[in-house]
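notes to self, project folder thing:

trying the whole complex as one job this time. last attempt i did each chain seperately and stitching them together was a nightmare. three parts in total, labels are on each line so i dont mix them up again. if this works i'll redo the older ones the same way
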Amino acid sequence: MKRELICIVCPMGCHCSIEVDATAPKGYTFSGLTCKRGEDYAIKEITEPTRMLTSTIRIEGARLPRLPVRTSSAIPKERIYECMGMINALRVTGPVSMGQVLIKDLFGTGVNLIASRSL
Amino acid sequence: MMSMNTYEIIIVGGGPAGLAAAIEAHKGGSQKILVLERDRELGGILMQCIHNGFGLHIFREELTGPEYAERFIREMESLGIEYRLDTMVLELRDDRTVDIISSEHGFETLQAKAVVLAMGCRERARGAINIPGTRPAGIYSAGAAQRFVNMEGLMVGKRVVVLGSGDIGLIMARRMTLEGAKVLAVAEILPYSGGLTRNIVQCLDDYDIPLYLSHTITNIEGRDRVEGITIAKVDATRQPIPGTEIHYDCDTLLLSVGLIPENELSKSAGIRLDPVTGGPVVNECMETSVAGIFACGNVVQVHDLVDWVTEEARKAGHHAARFAQGQLKEGSPDLVTRAGHGIRYVVPHTIRVGNLEQEVDLMMRVTEPCKNKNLVVRHGETLVKKVRKVHLTPGEMESIKIPVEKLQGLSGELNVCLEEVAHEA
Amino acid sequence: MIDITIIGGGVIGCLIGRELSRFQVKTLLVEKDSDVANGTTKANSAIVHAGFDCKPGTLKGKFNVEGNAMYDRICGELSVPFKRNGSLVVAFSEEELPELHSLEKKGKQNGVPGLELLSGDEVRRKEPRLSKTIVEALYAPTGGIVAPWDLAIAAAENAMDNGMELRLDTEVVNIERIEGGYRLLTAKGDAIETRVAINCAGLYSDHIHNMVAEPCFKIIPRRGEYFVLDKSEGNHVSHTIFQCPTPNGKGILISPSVHGNLIVGPNAEQVENPDHVETTAAGLNAVREAATKSSPDVAYAAVITSFAGLRSTPDTGDFIIGEAKGAPGFFDVAGIESPGLTSAPAIAVHVARLVRSFFGNLTFKTDFNPVRRPVVHFSQLPNEAKAARIKKDPRFGRIVCRCERITEGEIVDAIHRNAGATTVDGIKRRLRPGMGRCQGGFCGPRVVEILARELHIPMTEVRKDRPASVLLTGVTKMGAGG
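result (full assembly):
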């Protein structure tokens, strides 16, 4: 199966494609890429794509009604909406400090949801 | 008349530029520094930029806007630098006095030995781009929408079209989607996006939001609230092509059509502005045409990365401290930089070689996207510096560092341009 | 029963309300929108015409010159900025000269003072940015500029200070005759009983008239589109520059606005109904093209907004002012197109006289105060006064609109005055936040917050303008999976 991608490793933004090929050194053949880092990105993007998720949660007892939050590192892309559901249901009471863990170990990935400012 | 409060350095603006300038001025030995911030907290626009992608160059990690700001705010507070919130500078004069007001302190006039301008930029408005149609509710600049959604927790609409593919517009397309809105399309009048590729992939492609390049909005409908928007393809002169219209039923239009340096105060002080950047003309120390008034960050040129704002602000803060301590050599510049073929502008505009400590960092933007060019600095016919660039786009600022040795003894023009790469064996 | 009900809170209705508030009668002004000055009054050329182009003997001719002469006093009493900047009608060729000279002649017949014909060179000495093709011009020193919404709002406020009642969001949908007067039925479902009704419904005045009397006129909305340029261009010209009029109107003008911007427009286009307030690419292009004739180097890059307004043009050719036939106590003040703004103060006095004689006589209030409590324009105060003002009310120390330098204190005052603002556009109209360079990008969220706080409503209920102009559609955290 062939997949079309835009590489985001560097500002070049190579339009490329990747295809499973058991005979190739990395198990895939590539076209349109100009560097090795792009190949690794493309493999990750079709096997286990991940994304950082940033959002806000409800906060009470603070100067603002919303607290910005983020995942401590990237989470599986297909879990984003599920994670948004958890974020939307979450409420905290201030004060909260930057980096404070709000949800531990999202989906058993070891990734936490943390506050991205003090409020 | 009340006795005038005096400071060594007054910094106008407590966003990323102002914070970094203040810290650097303090490190440079300035004792009495005051940062003036018009908002209710420090951090500037970063406080509403809750997405990640800040700090890769400065901190070697990916932070969100508020995190990036908070690191600087903490550092500034730990250094004991004085700041005032909810304080607006009404006027700046070329003798480095400022009139300020605040609820807490009322009206005051302050005197500084050096002033650093760090007011940032503002978004271009709809009128400036003349979209025909009605003027209903539901038309927001991307930045205003970002403030409502991220800081106030309020939704600006349910079905959204975005005009302009600047990064804030792309980021807001994803934010609105994740908050349950339907983003129908992003239209960009240019044949390329002004936003980072990464944002196109992760904010649009990830959520199947179409990006229409070479498209603009030709009509807005709705008497009270936006009810519909028509976009159409444009020709080479950016005029809509009849028959290419696409209509959307929507209730919201977000505008992400560019940023303009905020220089009302600079004008009041008689500071010379560059019509291309919209910001002050500056020298190697980030000093404006008025001696002792420095400028940095988006007030000088609209940056694409906050990291470069920080770097530029450190430079301004450092040299403002030198000026306040009488260490800068005044006088006319040795060199004037010039944007040559393929280059839209160059900052700084002038160089006094005697004030350079190690090198000068020329920052610039190209006029259009291109690949495989040499970015070249020449003094007359003499090559001063050449850098091979694989990929160039107006959306990404370029910089060239030139060591001071190479400029020693030179005067006249320093020409920056793009040249073809010679075929090498 | 209410003595007098004015239908429509445009500049005409508001000024009539103020005139009637001099008398010991119960006066009510009803307005269908959420603010006064919300129709034609908010979107027109904002010119106080000298009065040379009206046909002598018409109501337009009479009230224009009378109204013009009243402006200094009324704007003084109501603290409304007004400037007699003078106007120039320019002619581009010998062929236009007969028209220009006939304007001068009509002007003299109408009693316009100070008219003068200038040569092309004399014109360009006055206005160096005007076209070299201009051969002659008619100069009228009494021409002026004013913000019509300022005048209407100030008049409504002053009328209320003197006892008038104002009901917003009150649309009259039908009128019944009752013993000794009329019953006005509103869209909300309530009824207002009144002895006298005055129809100042602008674009809708024919509909209102037809609820009571035999149809005898029709309003044909004519749209005009305009550019507004940044204050940096406000000095492009100092006089109001007209071209020779055509059957379609006074033509495209270029003028400074009383708030320091430059205004260019309008074209004239008949539209189907009063909801067509959209601008069009073709219309704006036409404005630009025509204006280039007067001044070739207007910096359109400095346009900060464009807008369209509707003229309530009557099919009768003149203002319709007086008691409707067969409807005693029902007065029409309709078809008030240009020079309606200029004529408004004189029309108001005239209508008050008609109403007074309808009642036989009305007693003057002894405590009528014609002077409106002055509005503090913080940015224009001297520094000592700024300091004193903040000390008195710290909210004046907080700038909300950066472009126009408007403080929270001014916004709060604009909300709590009589005829105060209830919407974002209402604030904008009174104080101009959102009218500057950023067009509300920065101050928009803050203005919404202040309106919500002062009106004791949630931010999601704050509106831009009319009730359906919802700004915020809900709260976050309700989306995907929430």
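what i see at first glance: Chain B has three domains: 1-122+258-328, 125-257, 331-425.
need to look closer tmrw
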